[in-house]
Amino acid sequence: PALPVTDVSKARINKRWTVPTDSGFSSFSVAGPQAFTVVTRGGKETLVALDVKSGRELWAQALDDAKYDGGGNSGTRDNQGGDGARSTPTVNDGKVYAIGSQVTVFCFDAKDGKKIWTHDVQKANGGENIRWQNAASPVIDGDILLLAGGGKGQALLGVDKKTGAVKW
């Protein structure tokens, strides 16, 4: 077996594929044969599932409208990062979770992209979006999906990852 590389200057990286991603700041979450990210496509933030071996798009699901106030180009003078999706999806137990720019939480089947549930945090929990729209990513602890964005006294919400129901 290969020994771990402790000197990164000696590491060899073999690029397998390249896929253009539309504007945004979302990172990738990888689970098994799939990689997930959120891009801006056709005026919507879009969750995309890619095959890790080929980069081929397996499925895509539209999330919230991609409307940003004070986006990537609004920071320091040398920050011309562009605009686009900010949240990184998370994957757990065959489900992929994403929070859209309007603080709507989505749960999809990771295999085929079928929507399982949604929860509109602004509507259901009196959430107020930040000026440049949601930039937080969901985190899972056991059966609870943790997310930010609720109203007064609800800045951090614990949602049942199976149903989307608020637990606390």
Structure summarized in a few sentences:
The chain is mainly beta.
Overall description:
It is a single chain. This protein is 3% helix and 36% strand. The chain has 168 residues and is mainly β. It starts with 28 loop residues before the first strand and ends in an 8-residue tail after the last strand. 32% of the residues are buried.
Q: What topology does this entry show?
A:
Blueprint: E1 29-31, E2 34-41, E3 44-51, E4 57-65, E5 90-92, E6 95-99, E7 104-109, E8 115-120, H1 121-125, E9 139-141, E10 144-148, E11 156-160
Antiparallel strand pairs: 1-2, 2-3, 3-4, 5-6, 6-7, 7-8, 9-10, 10-11
Q: What global shape is seen?
A: globular
The succession of helices and strands, N to C, reads: EEEEEEEEHEEE
Count the helices. How many?
A: 1
> Which regions are unreliable across 5 or more consecutive residues at pLDDT < 50?
none
* Strand segment tally: 11
Structural class: mainly beta
Distance between the termini: 46 Å
Q: Supply Rg.
A: 17 Å
User: Beta fraction of the residues?
Assistant: 35-45%
The amount of helix comes to: under 10%
Strand order of the largest sheet: 1-2-3-4
Average predicted confidence as pLDDT: 85
Q: Main beta sheet, described?
A: 4 strands, antiparallel
Q: Which features characterize this protein?
A:
168 residues, mainly beta, 4-stranded antiparallel sheet, 1 helix, 11 strands, 36% strand
